[in-house]
Amino acid sequence: MDESVVQARIPQALVSVLGVESKPTLKAEAFTEAFLKNGLQRTPKCDLKSMLSHKAVVLDFTRPKKEKKNCKKAKGLNAHQKRAMKVFEIKPEHQRYELFLPLHQLWRQYIVDLCGGLKPTSNPNVVQQKLLKADFHGAVITVVRSKCPSYVGTTGILVQEFKHVFKIITKQDKIKVIPKRNSVFAIEINGFISHIYGNKFEHRASERSAKKFKVRGTIDL
Amino acid sequence: MKVWTGGKQGKQRWRRRSNTTPRSLLVCERSSFCDENNRVSSQVEQLHFNYKVSVLLSDCSSAPSHLESLLTSFSHFYLVRNLPLHELLDKQFLETAVYQGNVYGLSYRTRLDEDNCVALMPNGHLVLSLDKDSFQVLGFEGKTSTFNYKTKNRYVVTVDLTDGSMAPGRQAYLRLLTGLTSRLPLQMDFLLSHHPGGGASLQALLSRYIWSEHKPEVGTCSLTHLPCPDLQSCDPHGLLEWLGAVDANISRDNSSSSFLSSLVCPEPKRTVSRALRISICGLLLPHDVQRLIQELRCYLGQCQPESWVSLTVHGFVDSPVSWGGKEHGVLRGGENFYTLFIFHDHTYHLHLAAGAQDTCPP
């Protein structure tokens, strides 16, 4: 809309009809200014003049900015690289049962300490709860029942525990890989024989210490 | 039997009805003893473990003397209490008894569908029928039972003791021995028998445990005015039912006052004035049954032309093996028996019957 239309004087003929009269220019300007001043809210933020006055601007003595160091976290190796490095393989000259007997003694001491001195009068439930979180590397483990008949009866010292298998070394100096699924294992310590149901035990040893075991499903093979 | 069922959203699926009655098998054969290819002797040899033989002689009031003497000369058998199974793998027992092909052994009072059953056949095969837990603990190779293979409750371990791999000292032999001694020490009552002349072989084994010697029980009963069907034309099912009723002494009058049995003798029938029923119970060996058949044929040769003889041999219900070492199971009955009708002119009718969990008789 054209501003000249708004600012045009009202014709004389319409004065009596509308009931208003145009004021002279100077009076109209003064009136508009006064009207706006009363009507609009004055925010202190917009008060630029007061913002700029009485403020000191420091030119020297600035703090030097610290440079952020690019700290790279060690990303670690992925599984492909780990397998290539062959860290977890046991060399044939090390595959002797006698070499692992000290490890077994160490494990026995560890378990006895863990269960607070494994006396014949200890409560089996307490021992069982402790064993659930314990580490089994170095234990003498026996397969008691299995869906596959050829696994039954194998006995040896546990060398490595993975998510789904046990690697044990038998007295005949053979490394046997026994899947945990569908097998029941027995571990004996100081007269306490515990049976591990492999179906419920398929976790990494490191994750098992933090795992809560729930009674779910059957222990039938 | 398959049935259409209307499923959700108009999908139609097949569903199998599982409430059909268990099947039974009956194999019938008619031939003559004079025929060279007759299968009677081979049939008799193949059913190793027999517990009852019933004989029905028509037109006879008392047992002839030859028959009496034969019946009393049946092989004796031994019952051993609580025999540990690893004793069957004893080296001396193997050499003296098993390798000679002399020994018949069967576990006594073990139910085939619930407990573990063991059979030792004369050809040196040891058959163990185990339930799931026992098999998983034993740790010796075996197969699931051919019956109820989906639920996998029953496993059969078959070991050939005469094979080279099972010779004492070999790996397989040691594995089975450690399995039966340390992992699964089974003990059960055992029935043992041997071919004539092999008695000494069992003595060493028997001397270590509680044992008792038994001879087969013989019972005779003479019957008068026995209605019997026409054997040549009667259908096998009706005939066997009538014969079973005679053997079990069930009345076949179908009188209105009796509510126990409504069995009737199949038509057409004639009345036999006198008949003799003999039953022998125990662990009966096939060669004794062969001798009995020979004796009955001789006796029949001296009788009238219309007379006949029927011989029914029942196999053990709880035996893990049936004809020829094939697997046997018990569903509701567990019957496996054969009936032989012998006629004056050297012809015979042979009926072989098996239950639901049996393979077809040979």
TrEMBL record, chain A:
The biological process GO terms on file are: rRNA processing; tRNA 5'-leader removal
Highest taxon listed in the record's lineage: Eukaryota
Give the chief site where it resides.
nucleus
Q: Does the keyword tRNA processing apply?
A: yes
Q: What's one GO MF term for it? A: ribonuclease P RNA binding
| Places the protein is found | Nucleus, Nucleolus
What do the Gene Ontology cellular component annotations say?
Answer: nucleolus; ribonuclease MRP complex; ribonuclease P complex
**A Pfam family annotated for this UniProt entry:** RNase_P-MRP_p29
Q: Keywords on this record?
A: Nucleus, Phosphoprotein, tRNA processing
Task: Name the family the entry cites.
Answer: Belongs to the eukaryotic/archaeal RNase P protein component 1 family.
Subunit info here reads: Component of nuclear RNase P and RNase MRP ribonucleoproteins. RNase P consists of a catalytic RNA moiety and 10 different protein chains; POP1, POP4, POP5, POP7, RPP14, RPP21, RPP25, RPP30, RPP38 and RPP40. Within the RNase P complex, POP1, POP7 and RPP25 form the 'finger' subcomplex, POP5, RPP14, RPP40 and homodimeric RPP30 form the 'palm' subcomplex, and RPP21, POP4 and RPP38 form the 'wrist' subcomplex. All subunits of the RNase P complex interact with the catalytic RNA. Several subunits of RNase P are also part of the RNase MRP complex.
Known function: Component of ribonuclease P, a ribonucleoprotein complex that generates mature tRNA molecules by cleaving their 5'-ends.
Name of the protein in question: Ribonuclease P protein subunit p29
What would be the name of the gene that encodes this protein? pop4
TrEMBL record, chain B:
Q: Which residues form the signal peptide?
A: none
Q: Which Pfam families match?
A: Ribonuc_P_40
In terms of InterPro entries, this protein maps to: RNase_P_Rpp40
Superkingdom of the source species: Eukaryota
Write out the GO cellular component annotations: multimeric ribonuclease P complex; ribonuclease MRP complex
Q: Name one GO biological process term.
A: tRNA 5'-leader removal
Q: Which residues cross the membrane?
A: none
**Name this protein carries in UniProt:** Ribonuclease P protein subunit p40 isoform X1
Q: State the species of origin.
A: Betta splendens (Siamese fighting fish)
**Gene name, please?**
rpp40
